[in-house]
Amino acid sequence: MDNLNDLKLLWQTAKTDRLPGAGEMLRLVKRFRSQKLRNKWLVIAFSLILAAIMLFAIILGHFQMLSTYIGGSLMMSACLLLSASNIRSLKRFYQLADSSNAEFLAFIEKTRQNQQRYYQKTMRVIMVLLSAGWLSYLYEPVSKQGGWLIALYAALIAYLAFLWFYIRPRNYQKNAAKLDALEERLEKINQQLK
Question: 85: closest CA among 52, 147, 127?
Fold first, then answer.
């Protein structure tokens, strides 16, 4: 019986000030979910608006070169692909409403896998379509002025290289770090609750 009293005393003296309450855990999950849903809906809305603008530009514009129509179609395809990839992931986030810690950790791991696949495959396809679209679309307006053509294409290629080699990896690392921090915090909470 002494061991039981010692265990009870030890349990009562354990410091739990670093453990979040149940309310904080729910707020953490809800905030994560609402931020991701808001961002996904914004990306979907803006990409669909840009695709519609591109469609109207192609339909209403009287272009002489086929490259302009091809470029507009490629940019529109990139916008629609971006929108479709975000629409596909909405279902997972809406199903996240009520979940246990273990289910939320599994959700975070699945989100990490999806994020990595998006970065390695989907984003590359979108960037290639968008880059080829810009380069093709802007050829006709500046093709008659050689100096402008060279200056515009040099600036555009520099900008695309900046997006591809600096912004894209930095954005991925920033999002991965946020996901890692959230997962680490949840792992600690989950271990302490076991």
Answer: 127
Whole-Å CA distances, 91 to 27, 82, 86, 123: 20, 16, 10, 20
Reply yes or no on whether the pLDDT at 61 is more than 70.
yes
| 51 close to 83: Cβ distance less than 8 angstroms | yes
Whole-prediction pTM value? Answer: 0.78
Asked if pLDDT for residue 4 goes beyond 70, the answer is no
CA atoms in the 13 A half-sphere facing the CB of 32: 24
Encoded amino acid at 180, one letter: D
Position of tokens 């991701």?
A: 36
Q: What's the whole-number mean pLDDT along residues 108-131?
A: 90
CA distances from 62 to 54, 59, 69, 70, 168 (A): 13, 8, 10, 14, 35
- For tokens 């349990």, the residue is 11
- How many C-beta atoms surround the C-beta of residue 82 within 10 A? 23
